[in-house]
Design goal:
Elements lengths: L1 H10 L4 H11 L2 H4 L3 H33 L4 H24 L4 H14 L24 H32 L3 H4 L1 H20 L5 H21 L3 H15 L2 H12 L5 H29 L2 H18 L2 H16 L1
Helix pairs in contact: 1-4, 1-13, 2-4, 2-6, 4-12, 4-13, 5-9, 5-12, 7-9, 7-11, 7-12, 7-13, 7-14, 9-11, 10-11, 10-12, 10-14, 12-13, 13-14
């Protein structure tokens, strides 16, 4: 991801189409692996290209926002949540119809590759001179990444443990258990779509704070819910709230970065943020293992409250960052 930020700052959104093709081809590697070690290597390739594509797409979006003065990131992330649901259902139906792993991966590769022609023409005119690529490790961008990592702890924890909570805590069937992550993902789609419509009416830190508090309330309901139905309502509230975190924080990073270094800024935020995905689910699993899944859910509620409290630092940190940038310039 950090490397891709520097590459994007050099070549701009022309990088998106080649990355889509490369990522599409890479997704087939796990299906061709002859052994577990080669499967590991293939998954490393998928992860690397996925991270690079993530940085390029978000950087292209913030450049478009800067050029047009309009907001796009919330809608972009809503599309991600929506297509995640579509992909999950489609893969399930394909597997139920007898499709093997390679058939599923081939279909995925084709869909991704077909998106490449739609991204051949740059959406934003590239400046005549692109600054020499460099890493952006300023405290402000590291802070935004840390805040996003807290949100991703909740996202990863919900995706990994919501079904287990319904099945283990309430004795629900596997079919009902699948509604946990499903309701969470559907609510994230709705939350991001709503943020796209009304998000411009709120400041960034107020939108982040409100979403984090809503998520904290929903997860608190999950942790004490007496029935699976009430728990699923809590999952939905959690999804609505945490949905706004990533697009809001990525948007702040793009607006506060200089015009020719948005890719590196987004790469720094994204790289730090993904530590939340990496460590979130295992931490929740460890807490649940030594106590119960109710305590694991309670931990994620605490993370949301922490994010809400820290969101107040964004305006002051942004002012200091601009002052430092102006002095350096």
């Amino acid at each position: 991801m950090l490397t891709m930020g520097a590459i994007y700052d050099r070549y701009g959104d022309r990088t998106v189409a080649p990355l889509l093709i490369a990522f599409g081809l890479t997704t087939m590697l796990p299906g061709t692996a002859p052994s577990a070690p080669w499967l590991f290597v293939g998954l490393l390739g998928v992860g690397a290209l996925s991270g690079m594509l993530d940085v390029a797409i978000n950087a292209a979006a913030v450049e478009w926002e800067a050029a047009t003065g309009r907001r796009l990131l919330a809608l972009l992330h809503a599309g991600f949540s929506g297509f995640f649901l579509v992909a999950s259902i489609s893969v399930g139906l394909a597997r139920g119809g007898g499709a093997g792993p390679m058939g599923v991966l081939l279909g995925l590769a084709l869909v991704v590759a077909l998106a490449a022609p739609l991204n051949l023409m740059p959406r934003v005119a590239a400046p005549e001179y692109r600054r020499r690529p460099r890493l952006r490790l300023e405290p402000f961008f590291l802070m935004l990444g840390a805040f996003c990592a807290l949100a991703f702890v909740v996202e990863g924890g919900m995706e990994a443990w919501s079904a287990e909570h319904l099945e283990r805590t309430f004795g629900s069937s596997a079919a009902v258990g699948g509604l946990g992550p499903g309701s969470f993902a559907a609510a994230m789609l709705c939350g991001r779509a709503l943020a796209h419509v009304i998000g411009h009416r709120l400041s960034d830190h107020r939108l982040l704070m409100g979403g984090a508090l809503l998520a904290a309330g929903g997860i608190s309901v999950v942790s004490i819910a007496p029935t699976a139905v009430i728990a699923m309502a809590g999952f939905a509230c959690a999804g609505l709230g945490v949905a706004v975190a990533a697009p809001t924080l990525f948007g702040v990073a793009g607006r506060e970065a200089s015009d020719q270094a948005k890719g590196s800024a987004l790469a720094t935020v994204t790289t730090v943020a993904y530590l939340g995905f990496l460590f979130g689910a295992p931490i929740v699993g460890w807490i649940s293992g030594v106590s119960s899944l109710r305590f694991g859910m309670g931990f994620m509620a605490f993370v949301c409250v922490t994010l809400a409290a820290l969101s107040r630092l964004i305006p002051r940190a942004a002012v200091r960052h601009r002052a430092v940038r102006s002095h350096a310039g």
